[in-house]
Amino acid sequence: MAVVFRVATRRSALALVQTRWVIERYRSMNNWFVYMENQIVTEGDRVQDRPLYEVGGKGLFIKELERALLDGEAEIAVHSMKDLPAELAPGLAVIAVPPRESPWDLLLTRDGRGLSELPKNARVGTTSLRRQLQLRDARSDLEFIPLRGNIDTRLRRLEAGDFDAIVLAEAGVRRLGLSVKAVSLEGVCVPAIAQGALAIEGSPKMLAEGNPPIDRFVAALEHSDTRVETDAERAVQRALGADCVTPVGALARVDSREQTLSIQGFLASNDGQRTARARVSGALHEGETLGRALADELRRSLDAP
């Protein structure tokens, strides 16, 4: 009898592309399983007219998927890791972290111009306070306009002239194979925590006790460098007690040759009046410690007179 391998996913175009990428990797390792998508519309998908912090934060994108895992309706769930809160539901864990896509933000315009070339008082579409404050550090004249919805909706509004520019994660643009006029914001914006990474979530106990046990099979997509980087970034998140309101970014980078890890970070007060940047580095195995150290440095810099 065939083993059914069910994968919980959001129904957005990007979520489905990511989930199907994961399924194809698993199918290449084991084509005896029957792979099925359990498509779920989350609360975060249903509410599009308000910022996330007004309706419950990032957890709105994963609560229903976690419920499907705990209720035995799926073996795994595939998430954009930046959507994960600092703590997962009891009994669940990130079983595998595949190789990361680009972590950077992109500035998209109708003609491909960069940040310095935007007109004075340009209208920029983004709801992210993290992005707004870092862009404002570079261009204090910019006007920011809230922008939610799927990527197609955002691109249509840009083309319609609602904005002079919008900001998207480069990973999503690449995964969808979109042809856009864009400039990387590397060096301008520290990315969101775990941006560009995927998280394969499940119940270790249920996967190990299933018939057949598939915990090791699920873990086969693990990419060690991406795990080290995202674990360090999420350590910053936990140390700061950051939630969906907190304007925070962090990006860790592994140097495999030197066996070192560096993390850069950004933090702002919730009112946006004060901002701080910092960087720490150390040994590859010190991710948790380095994440906490970066959080402390950011907090000290933010509180300095």
Task: Spell out the key features of this protein.
305 residues, alpha/beta, D-Maltodextrin-Binding Protein, domain 2, Double Stranded RNA Binding Domain, 3 domains, 5-stranded mixed β-sheet, 13 strands, 34% helix, 24% strand, globular
Name the CATH superfamily assignment of the largest domain. Answer: Periplasmic binding protein-like II
Low-confidence stretches: none
Question: What's the SSE pattern?
Answer: EHEHHHEEEEHEHEHEEHHHEEEH
Number of strands: 13
Q: What's the topology here?
A:
Blueprint: E1 4-10, H1 13-29, E2 34-40, H2 43-46, H3 52-55, H4 63-70, E3 76-80, E4 93-96, E5 105-108, E6 123-125, H5 129-138, E7 143-145, H6 151-159, E8 165-169, H7 170-175, E9 182-184, E10 198-202, H8 204-209, H9 215-219, H10 224-240, E11 248-255, E12 260-268, E13 275-283, H11 287-303
Parallel strand pairs: 1-2, 1-3, 6-7, 6-8
Antiparallel strand pairs: 3-10, 4-10, 5-8, 5-9, 11-12, 12-13
Description:
- The model has no long low-confidence stretch (mean pLDDT 93).
- Helix 10 packs parallel to helix 11.
- The protein folds into three domains: 4-98 and 197-222, Periplasmic binding protein-like II (D-Maltodextrin-Binding Protein, domain 2, 3-Layer(aba) Sandwich); 105-184, Periplasmic binding protein-like II (D-Maltodextrin-Binding Protein, domain 2), CATH 3.40.190.10; 231-303, Double Stranded RNA Binding Domain (2-Layer Sandwich).
- Strand 11 (248-255) and strand 12 (260-268) form a beta hairpin.
- It has 305 residues and is of the alpha/beta class.
- The protein has a five-stranded mixed beta sheet with strand order 2-1-3-10-4, with helices on both faces.
- The protein contains eleven helices and 13 strands.
